[in-house]
Design goal:
By secondary structure, the chain is an alpha+beta fold. It folds into 2 domains: about 130 residues, Bifunctional nuclease domain; about 70 residues. The chain is built from 7 helices and 7 strands. The longest helix has 30 residues. The radius of gyration is 19 Å and the shape is flat. The mean pLDDT is about 85.
């Protein structure tokens, strides 16, 4: 049985190549993070916000190809977890039939992000994530590392905002952008802290 989940949060920082997306059970409390690359994280964020680019990016191109060929991405299923690597399948309906195509979860989510495509996780994958003590320890360690990286970045932004010369000489929109990024990262930090408290 596949379990419906939703994309609950994306953590994007400039510190390192690996970013994090959080998936949460729609009708429950279970959830887990997936490490993804910065390009996929930015693509998901851009498509969720409806930000258009002058020319189609990779995921926009693939969505256009599926549409032009009369297909519809009906759902995304994260169907396997092997050696700490997640696997997913795209379920595309075309001409009355269903195509299943192997995909990285990050690409699948980026593709479906702008189309409200439902995401599912195989029950076996969810059970492995929730029941394996090693997996839980790894999730906690991952979240702690992200908290530390966010904390350092928040301190850097705060130091900038405490610098009177920067505040008085930088363009107002630049100061506002730094303040907004600092506040967003603080929200992410607080959210991770809450998750860690629940994980115990």
């Amino acid at each position: 049985m596949d379990i419906p989940v939703e994309l609950s949060r994306i953590l994007i920082t400039e510190l390192g190549e690996q970013q994090v997306v959080f998936l949460k059970e729609v009708d429950g409390d279970r959830g887990f993070p997936i490490l993804i690359g910065i390009n996929e994280a930015l693509a998901i964020d851009r498509r969720l916000k409806g930000i258009e680019t002058p020319r189609p990016m990779t995921h926009d191109l693939l969505a256009g190809v599926i549409h032009a060929m009369g297909g519809k991405l009906e759902k995304i299923v994260i169907n396997d977890l092997r050696e700490h690597t997640f696997y997913a399948r795209l379920h595309i309906r075309q001409d009355g039939g269903m195509l299943e195509i192997d995909s990285r979860p990050s690409d699948a989510i980026a593709l479906g992000a702008a189309m409200d495509t439902p995401i599912y996780v195989a029950e076996g994958v969810m059970e492995t994530l929730m029941e394996g003590p090693a997996s839980k320890a790894e999730r906690i360690e991952l979240l702690r590392r992200r908290m530390e990286m966010l904390r350092e970045r928040i301190e850097q932004f705060s130091d900038q905002l405490d610098d009177e010369e920067f505040v008085n000489t930088a363009p107002p929109e630049v100061v506002a952008e730094v303040r907004e990024q600092r506040d967003q990262m603080q929200q992410e930090y607080d959210a991770i802290d809450e998750v860690l408290r629940k994980l115990g």
